Amino acid sequence: MKLLLFLVLSVVLRLPTASAQEARARRGDPLPTQGTSHLYITPMPGQIPSSLKELCDLSTLIIDGTVKATIPPRDTGTGALETDAVIAIGRTLKGPASLNHVVISQRGGTTGDRAVVPAQYSLVEPGERYILFLTEDKRPNIPEVATTKRYLVVGIWSGLFRFEEGRMRVNARTPDPLRSRYEGLSLEQITGEISDVLRP
Q: Which residues contact 56 (CB under 8 A, 6 or more apart)?
């Protein structure tokens, strides 16, 4: 997807020293091949929705789903890692109702002695339940996953609404104004608000 080409990444490398110092890599520096890197994404202007309506408008698919499995991360060719996850759809709020499963891709992941940890969002994990706001992943040369259709999260992290015990929980180390408005609301409350936004 073209938007991903414009992401500006800065990475903080946790150095393996006793004092656990951190150093910020300069833009253009190669990503480390060992240890833990913290991934920060600077979105393009207007890429992060500021309202639920904008989030819904940008989405071609909105689902209530559960993470069925994650796939070991793959190198994107730029030294970054990307992790795919298979989502089992329980309910479709917007988009084709014929889909039973989709695959989403997120920057970050862990493989061997290397970990790339996103700061603005958490990678989805098997068993977690989400309302996901998605758009079709039209990037070329992305490997297929059992012919399952691929999607990307709208607004990079904005479209990740995670639920624990029926309540919305934001799991991120950096502020997220849009999702924070819905922290603690029930699944029914949020799906009701989405339905109101989508109503013609």
A: 62, 94, 133, 194, 197, 198
d(CA 195, CA 124): 24
- For residue 7, give both structure tokens: 């992401």
pTM attached to this predicted model: 0.82
Residue at 28: amino acid letter: G
87-117 residue pLDDT tens: 999 999 999 999 999 999 999 999 888 899 9
Alpha helices in the chain (DSSP H): 2-5, 52-58, 177-180, 187-198
Q: Is residue 52 part of a domain?
A: yes
Domain interval for residue 191: 47-198
Count helices and strands in the chain by DSSP H and E runs: 4, 12
